[in-house]
Automatic annotation (TrEMBL):
It comes from Streptomyces sporangiiformans. Coiled coil: none annotated. One of its GO terms (molecular function) is transferase activity. Pfam families: GGACT (PF06094). The lineage of its organism: Bacteria, Bacillati, Actinomycetota, Actinomycetes, Kitasatosporales. It comes from the Bacteria. Keywords: Transferase. This is Gamma-glutamylcyclotransferase. CDD domains: GGCT_like (cd06661). Residues 6-134 form the Gamma-glutamylcyclotransferase AIG2-like domain.
Amino acid sequence: MRRLPFFVYGTLRPGEHNHDLFLLGRTESEVPGRLSGAVLYEGPGYPYAVEEPGGVVCGELVTAVPEQYGPLLAALDRLEDYAAGDPGNVYERVARDVARPDGTRVHAWVYVAAPAVAARLRARGKLIEGGDWRLRGV
């Protein structure tokens, strides 16, 4: 298993309701990041990243404390209703390049909408303009 950092863009961001529940005390760094090739859609209290050329999603690049990596990965997979190979997944965990503020790119785990969810969102979902969950409705 590759120990990649995580790119979070919704309720796991600092100040959002799942951040302290899942990340507090388990990370060694959290820095701003931008994921190219994806857009955000509104969900029921949380967003979905949908892979889409030309889009950009804003969030944080989170590096886990080494001894917390396995438990954190398992907790985030449960939170995101992800199980490897399960056709009923709501999200898929994929490795993608994320840009740091200095422009360097880091390979990170990102939870993106599973194909069936992404198709529904593209057909009738509400796009979050600008790709930043924190600025929705502003």
